[in-house]
Design brief:
Largest sheet: 7 strands, mixed
Length: about 425
């Protein structure tokens, strides 16, 4: 193994692979991808359902099929890999420290780093559900791995808490494997998953979705025997007298995803309090020069196609950074998210360094009907895009053109907001 590389991608999932391929295609000849699992592909290897690749390949693929397309491109040459290897530190000067059974402790000096570690599931401990700690409580992603890769059924009588996409998909998967899914309970008054998953995974199988409900107690000491579900008020507090007991042997938790940013913090990368991912500019560079971020480590995506698109941008710009082809910063214009829009990625733009067209992605904070997505250059509204419905589970995007920004010298802020139709 070389002790130095031009670009190191931390993570061999869809983001890391797309970034490495893009950097190679941009002319960078010294690239390393580090993956903690035994094979490339990341979380896609356990996502055996279809629905991937409609944007990228114009066809419907399963997760492993989608990952295989990128693996084939990555393995065609010009990229090195370290598998079954854990990155334990990334420093501000881009020294990457890794450990593996085969190599031991290794330090690799990079000229640029692409953070592509993905995200993890929020655990039960973050929910403060009263009761014992019996067997039979799994995160939805863990259950997905057990069923799809290990060939093990976690249980037969199932309740799911949280209506994120993984929870919805596992409701269908468990049903297809012969389990009975009593219900999916969701604390919020809206689902956190894609509309198509609600239809295909719940409605098509007659599985009830209980909005504004949560689990208030877990019964059973050695194994889950039942869960008690209650309706909640507008502040998320259980309403006395609404409790219903659901006998079950398994509780799956699909209660949110958290970007994996411990390595980002060790490098001194600034994180957004909203996304819990790095704050980035128009080239997806963090506040540390030469450290880029893309995919679910940056913000949680709904479609892997968007992860691949975003990572390709990060990889291409990392290659430009290594080659010294990035212009000096002229001035960053902050992007402000307000009035229903929770955040934007990127969080700032330097028009002199952006591509001819820049995709700004964001999520809304509630379910809205008949709203306009409006973009303001200072006090002037420049975009007014009507949407019949907006939901937190669906990522939105707006494209900004370099020519539009060039026509506004002295621009101080770009504001994204929702306005009533």
């Amino acid at each position: 193994m070389k002790a130095a590389y031009d670009i190191v991608a931390v993570g061999g999932g869809p983001a890391g692979l797309a970034a490495a391929i893009s950097a190679r295609d941009a002319g960078c000849g010294s690239i390393l991808v580090i993956e903690r699992d035994r094979e490339l592909g990341g979380i896609l290897n356990q996502c055996i359902h279809n629905g991937f690749g409609l944007i990228t390949f114009d066809e419907e693929l399963t997760g492993p099929e989608y990952a295989a397309r990128f693996e084939e491109q990555a393995l065609s040459g010009g990229i090195d890999f370290m598998l079954d290897t854990m990155v334990i530190d990334v420093s501000a000067d881009k020294l990457v420290t890794v450990v593996s059974r085969a190599e031991g402790l290794v330090q690799i000096q990079a000229k640029a780093v692409v953070l592509a570690m993905g995200c993890r599931e929020r655990p039960r401990g973050a929910l403060n559900i009263p009761g014992f700690r019996p067997a039979g409580i799994y995160s939805a992603g863990t259950a997905q791995r057990l069923v799809n890769i290990e060939g093990f059924m976690p249980g037969r009588e199932v309740v799911i808490l949280g209506s994120g996409d993984i929870g919805l998909i596992m409701a269908r998967r468990m049903t297809l494997e012969g389990a009975h899914v009593a219900c999916v309970a969701e604390l919020m008054p809206y689902s956190g998953g894609l509309k198509r998953n609600i239809v295909q995974c719940l409605d098509d199988f007659g599985i009830p979705l209980l909005l504004s409900h949560t689990v208030v107690r877990i019964e059973g000491q050695k194994r889950v025997e039942a869960v008690v579900i209650a309706e909640v008020d507008g502040r998320g507090k259980p309403i006395p007298g609404t409790e219903v007991t659901y006998p079950c042997d398994t509780l799956l938790l699909s209660v949110g995803l958290i970007p994996e940013n411990e390595l980002s913090l060790s490098a001194g990368v600034e994180l957004s309090p909203v996304t819990r991912g790095p704050v980035v500019n128009e080239i997806l560079e963090t506040n540390i020069p030469g450290i880029f971020a893309a995919g679910n480590v940056l913000h949680v995506h709904d479609l892997v196609d968007y992860v691949s698109q975003e990572a390709a941008v990060a990889g291409r710009n990392a290659a430009a950074f290594v080659a010294g082809n990035l212009d000096d910063e002229v001035g960053e214009i902050p992007l402000v998210a307000t009035d229903g829009i929770r955040y934007t990625v990127p969080q700032s733009i330097d028009p002199s360094r952006m591509a001819d067209e820049l995709v700004v992605r964001f999520r809304v904070g509630n379910v809205y009907e008949n709203r306009y997505i409006s973009v303001y250059f200072d006090d002037e509204r420049v975009k007014h895009l009507k949407r019949s419905i907006l939901a937190p589970g669906e990522m939105e995007q707006v494209k900004l053109k370099k020519a539009e920004l060039a026509a506004k010298p002295g621009l101080k802020t770009i504001t994204f907001k929702l306005e009533e139709a």
